[in-house]
Amino acid sequence: MGLNRVILIGYVGEAPEMRYTAVERLARVRLATHEYRNKPNGDAVQRVEWHSVVFYGEVALTVERLVKKGTHLYVEGRLQTSLHESATGETRRVTEVVARTFEILDGEEVESDPLH
To answer: Residue 112's pLDDT is what?
Structure first.
């Protein structure tokens, strides 16, 4: 048995990127999470990690409407890795979080389409 589950709390780095196809719509955001570590001299060092988060279906429209740069989000989902070919012909591996639910902190929780 395995488990593929991700929980992130962070800040949106820029406005959602929206894409529409004939069969589905998606919103992609870059989410920054922060980690603090203490150096031996006692100073705290902040490390920022950026995550690509994708929302599908009706929830993508909600993201488009409510989420903007600086929005504080709680996201639950799963990791998904795919291969893409670059313009130069190189194969690149991309890992992103496919959101199942999200909450704008101090806001409303939103359920995503369970098929994604």
So the answer is: 55
Helix (H, G, I), strand (E, B) or coil at 61: helix
**Separation of first and last alpha carbons in the chain:** 20
- Which bin fits 65, alpha (ψ -120 to 50), beta or left (φ > 0)? alpha
> In this predicted structure, what is the pLDDT of residue 113?
52
User: What share of residues in the chain are helix, strand, coil (percent, to 5)?
Assistant: 10, 60, 35
d(CA 74, CA 102): 5
- Tokens (6 digits) for 25: 């719509």
Determine the residue type at 69.
Answer: K
